[in-house]
Each structure stands twice: as C-alpha cells, then as structure tokens.
Amino acid sequence: MDELTQRLSKESHPVAAGGPQASLEDLRRRVEELGFVFVKFTETTGGTDLGVRLDRTATDSSAADFDAGTGSVHLEGTLILNDDPVRCVADIDLASLTGTGRLVPITESELVSS
After folding, report:
1. Where are the alpha helices (DSSP H) in the chain?
2. Contact, 39 vs 90, CB < 8 A?
3. What DSSP state is assigned to residue 59?
4. pTM of the shown model
C-alpha cells in the first residue's frame, strides 16, 4: 500500500470541499445531481484533492440545509489513489465547507460502479 494511502487511512484528517469551484452551490450540485465530489485533505504537502464517486446509499445529506448553508453532509464514495482502491469517508460542515475525513482500504471488487 502506498505511503499516502496508509497515512490517510490511519485516522481522521482535516478536509475541505475541493475541486475547481469549491462553493456551497457546487457541493450541492455534485451531491444531489452529479454523484461526484472533490474532497481535499488539507494537511498533506500541497493538499490532496480527490475525486470521489459517491455511494448514494451511504451518503447522507438529511442534516444539511443547502439553502441556509447550515448543517452537515456525510459523504462516502470510492476511488483509486496511487493504485490503491479506497473508500473516502468525510463529514463536511456546510457553513465552512470543512470537516474531517479518512480513507478506508477496500478491494477492487468493492469499488462502486456508476
């Protein structure tokens, strides 16, 4: 397993909603329509911005009020990081677009297909 994957799998780390247009509206569109979000692990060298294909059954936005910009969203989805299949688990506060997240190593057969 890659060193970065190992480090991000050991415990929770600070994360932020990432991607080219990190905003509340962009996050909402990605969660509700696209099913693909960017999660940035902010405390790696230069930050590690990951594209995550959401698992809609494990993602939970019931505590999120996107219109008011309050509450939080629980994100879960899969990706391959440095040849390692992983599940990204993150909780994002809508007011700050920051939160905590971690990676969970999985097998290739566990990757969510869209």
Report:
1. 3-10, 24-29
2. yes
3. -
4. 0.94
